[in-house]
Amino acid sequence: MTARFIMAIAGVTTCLQGPFALAQTVQEDNLSAPSAGLDIPEDVVLFGKRDPNVRKALALVNGEVITETDIEQRLALVVLANGGKVSDEERNRLRLQVLRNLIDETLQIQAAAAKDIKVSKEELDENFARVASNFKFSPDGFAKYLKAQGSSDRSIKRQIEGEVAWSRLLRREVNPFINVSTEEVTAIVNRLKADKGKEEFRVGEIYLSATPETTLQVQKNGEQILEQIKKGGSFQAYARQYSEASTASVGGELGWVRAAQLPDELASAAQQMQVGQVAGPIPIPGGYSIIYLIDKRQVLTADPRDAVLSLKQLAVDFPAGTTPAEAQRRANEFGEAIKSIHGCGPVNEMATKIGATVVENDIQARNLPPQLQTILLQMQVGESTPPFGSAQEGVRALVLCGRDDPQDATAPNAEQIASQMEEERVNKRARTYLRDLRRDAVIDYN
């Protein structure tokens, strides 16, 4: 399982965590019982580490316990989401963030319970089974896998409980008071038409709030997060753990936005970025943002990358142990051979001559690696790409057999626009709601 682990954890990934520690009551008489022949000094000094199986309370949230076990099991999932490659320093930072997340999660579940909103065991089991099936596990098998990774099924079920309970609470306490007028929707439709052809961006964001006193530390934290993402960490996983925006629960994704909809600082950065790049921390009013440019397109304009390409792939695999020099020689021979291909008809015959395999497929251009997208979208039907590959995987080439270009995009309908506007307003109210819960909470740390 890779960085996509947290993403797939179900339109839930937020899907992870936590238990309740059982209070153990001790009779007063037992407290004063003699130590029956045991030679125990009055001033006890402990040698060695404590039992790791003992759950130590690290925080009490309105009287509800968050234990070290809870934190370690949630942390194990975050580490798993980042391919298991997390430095000790990063692990310590993540542990603190996980504790903050668990506190918020506990507050959300408590707030829902106060409104008589609860998630049944059957529903949690059903959601857990769905997550397990995403990874080709039975529920029991997935629970064993999580345990082997230092986590537990309870950890994921707790996070599912938090997300479901909070979502239901918002639907009851916030959604009914959100209104989007017909005039507002009409204005958006007209603006889309006026902006036809302008760029819009699909952006992910990690928002870190800062005050004048915390600016330097928050900026440093942002730089460390950016460094981890550039090393291969999952942007979505870091957004879930660190972002203070309501989009944290969906991996930080803002959806499709135009430059005018972003703060000036983020708009300027997005316009200069290439798809797949990450930038930040960028100072904005109230804090810093790290942004990820997932994709970009032009408003109400057909995107060439939506073209469906009919392709034939020629492939020659190299034997194990092939040296770089030998791989280059064979790639050169392969390249010379495919120069004679004009059209897809001769491909199979050519493959037989040079010992290649042929695979046919229709694929949307945007689903290909960026380098191949650029080449193929500039090719005529019947032409082939330059050879590509590696000494380990062999050499490949694609022949373009056909291309179906997309039609101009149509504007989203009024219902879709109203739904998006409502969601944005609910998210804004949700941030305020959670902020109020934090202010009113009684939290004790061990």
Automatic annotation (TrEMBL):
Keyword Isomerase appears in the UniProt entry: yes
UniProt xrefs under SUPFAM superfamilies: FKBP-like, Triger factor/SurA peptide-binding domain-like
InterPro entries listed in its UniProt record: OMP_Chaperone_SurA, PPIase_dom_sf, PPIase_PpiC, SurA_N, Trigger_fact/SurA_dom_sf
Top-rank taxon: Bacteria
Signal peptide coordinates: 1-23
Pfam family, one: SurA_N
Keyword presence, Isomerase: yes
Keywords: Chaperone, Isomerase, Periplasm, Rotamase, Signal
Protein name: Parvulin-like PPIase
Lineage, broadest ranks: Bacteria, Pseudomonadati, Pseudomonadota, Alphaproteobacteria, Sphingomonadales
